[in-house]
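As a point of orientation, let us examine one representative protein, giving the amino acid sequence and backbone structure tokens.
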Amino acid sequence: MYRGATVGVVLPAYNEEGFVGDVIREMPDYVDRIYAIDDRSTDNTWGEILEAASQDADTVPTDEVASDTPLVTDGGASALTERASVADPVGRVVPIRHRENCGAGGAIKTGYLAASEDELDATVTVDADGQMDLSQMPRLLDPLVEDEADYAKGNRLLSREYREAMPRFRFVGNAILTFLTKIASGYWKTMDPQNGYTAISADALEAVDLENLYEYYGYCNDLLVKLNVQGMRVADVAMPAVYGDEESSITYSQYIPKVSTMLLRNFLWRLKTKYLVVDFHPLALFYLVGAATAVTGLLGVGVALAAAVVGFLPSLVGGSTGLLVFLAGVAFLLFAMVFDMAESEHLERQVH
């Protein structure tokens, strides 16, 4: 228990033999539950989880585990047991094994389902590869405990020192996804959306549609969109990352188009739900008119350029008109973004 709040940790693991055991053994004593999820690994990840759980149970005294926190059992929530087998708890560790590989987001969803059933006050997500500094966990929990945020996430881009420690190819990809996620989610101050070191409150976990969370690597981006629609407060916490010998399992040729498509779909869903269905705000129309106008202008410029190639003289006038239409569309989009920023500004804070 941390400052009077029960804390659970979701630990997704896929082929993390040699890493996951150390993460479990190094988990802070104030953590009440550790949901270690094996996503049908092909190595000895499951065996290492069970071994580390036994060692952790011998290390952490029983009276340090919150006695009033219930345990998930195999007869619990059907949404959980349909997708995973939940072993008997070993001390504070609840070993969970997927019935089939569900991906990174699927493992997080499974852990969230388990934590939701146990009604914990705060649930932290920690990668099983040892990249996350567990001593930094209180910085994620404090905004929730102090009721200043409903969701806190690590940010490796806030500090210049942390940015410089990030490999260059990761930094460029992260910067692109940060911009796309700002547009899709409406959290315009939030950066590093791919950071998997997070903490979520019980209220926020209940507010989002857990069973429909995205199950690929873009789960954290998807969650931000859902949190924004529900009016949840987000804290962006400066956080270092540790880069070791682990290898990323992301296939970027699949990752980029999948996540980009998901973000576009979520963006449209957010505009419809938040600004047309639940309430009305003209920014949704600004976005729509701006996008349509910009595309029309670009098509006009393209047609004019094609005409110029074949020597059609009036193409200059057509090209100028198309450019003006395009610029008008961009202006509409910028107005929409400014309104969007203002709508969510009170939901965001940064912790340096």
Summary: The radius of gyration is 23 Å.
